[in-house]
Design a protein that fits this description.
The structure holds 2 protein chains of 2 kinds. By secondary structure, chain A is mainly beta. Chain A is built from 1 helix and 8 strands, in the order βββαβββββ. In chain A, β4 and β5 form a beta hairpin. Classes of the chains: A mainly beta, B alpha/beta. β2 of chain A pairs antiparallel with β10 of chain B, so a sheet runs across the interface.
């Protein structure tokens, strides 16, 4: 099963979008995909405590915003789904 | 004396030798050097970020530097604020900075303004300035500076640090998202001193200085519309595409698109 993942950020050599995310099995949920992405990118909290991480401004699954997904993180994914991630950046105040 | 390009600014034989290693970079060349000499850069804050920014721009041959800071040097500054030494404790930071900068490059014209950046003071500070480098230590002053730069159409090179993390972006009024688009204003609570390692500030400051040199000389691709986030603890560098906010109260959301992707 292949999911297309796009984002408004890149991490050279680690997470360069758009990327095809592949799973050998079916029945993968949005939660599992986000957890895998989270484990790859250390600087960003994508997933936390069964919810989106603080660093995420919005995600879209096939153009639908997260809040409109009835099953939220338990939404099952299917081959060819498209996920988009928009990062929220908190300012670093020091100088 | 060599007249170098469209600025009409001449480079002396001494300057050609002094800046030889950067003039050797073909895309920059004598024309780029002449543009630096003709430029006026304001460095807002001469602390952890502002010290290396001012040092690099000064020794690079920027013709006029204005350094702005209302603080005095304290001992807790000395782990990262390279322009200030133990003998400068209790001196005004702008005086401490100006003294060192003039010694580093006696040809540079360095102006020192020991005032806070407020809505009232900032317009006069920006007169004649080509680029502003944001090396401030709080968001409230940054928002004031951002609005003034947007109003005056002056590019702003933003940098910020926390611990081993840092970020920077280049804001071009009318072309890129402004600081309030990227970081919408929130009530700021005084969190007291924040952690900062000197090398983190030095890393971000060096990149801010490089962006300034690129912007002034017209060489290379700027971080315009992109934010570089450096996580020194994990050694990760994220590049984030930043978008204008629709109806941004400061810049009006130039180029804002529906949604944020």
């Amino acid at each position: 099963m292949h999911i297309s993942v796009d984002a408004n950020f890149t991490l050279k050599g680690v997470f360069e979008t758009p990327v095809q995310w592949s799973f050998k099995r079916s029945g993968v949920t949005l939660r599992e995909l986000l957890r895998e992405i989270d484990q790859r990118v250390h600087s960003i909290t994508i997933f936390r405590d069964n919810d989106l991480g603080d660093d995420i401004e919005e995600i879209w699954l096939n153009g639908k915003r997260f809040f409109s997904l009835g099953e939220k993180l338990d939404t099952p994914l299917k081959d060819g789904d498209r996920l988009k991630i928009a990062l929220y950046m908190a300012p670093l105040g020091g100088g | 004396m060599r007249n170098s390009g469209e600025t009409g600014v001449a480079l002396t034989a001494e300057e050609l030798e002094r800046y030889q290693r950067q003039i050797l970079h073909a895309p920059f060349g004598q024309a780029g050097q002449a543009r630096l000499k003709a430029a006026h850069v304001l460095v807002a804050g001469v602390g952890g970020l502002g010290s290396p920014v001012a040092m690099y721009l000064c020794v690079s041959g920027v013709g006029t530097l204005t350094v702005v800071d209302a603080d005095v040097v304290s001992i807790s500054n000395l782990n990262r604020q390279l322009l200030h030494w133990e003998s400068d404790i209790r001196a005004r930071k702008v005086d401490s900075a100006r003294g060192k900068l003039v010694e580093m490059n006696p040809r540079a014209h360095v102006e020192a303004i020991g005032e806070r950046i407020t809505r009232e003071t900032v317009p006069s500070m920006l007169k004649g300035v080509d680029v502003v480098v944001d090396c401030l230590d709080n968001m409230a002053s940054r928002y004031i500076l951002n609005q003034a730069c947007v109003d005056a159409g002056i590019p702003l090179i933003h940098g910020g640090v926390y611990g081993m993390m840092g970020q920077l972006t280049t804001i071009i009024p009318g072309k890129t998202p402004c600081l309030e688009c990227i970081f919408p204003r929130k009530e700021e609570t005084d969190q007291g001193p924040i952690p900062v390692f000197g090398p983190t500030a030095g890393t971000i400051a060096s990149l801010q200085a490089l962006e300034t040199i690129k912007l002034l000389s017209g060489v290379g691709k700027l971080l315009a519309g992109r934010l570089l986030y450096f996580n020194g603890q994990e050694m990760e560098c994220l590049l984030v595409d930043v978008q204008s906010r629709d109806k941004c109260p400061i810049c009006g959301g130039v180029g804002a698109k529906e949604g944020i992707m």
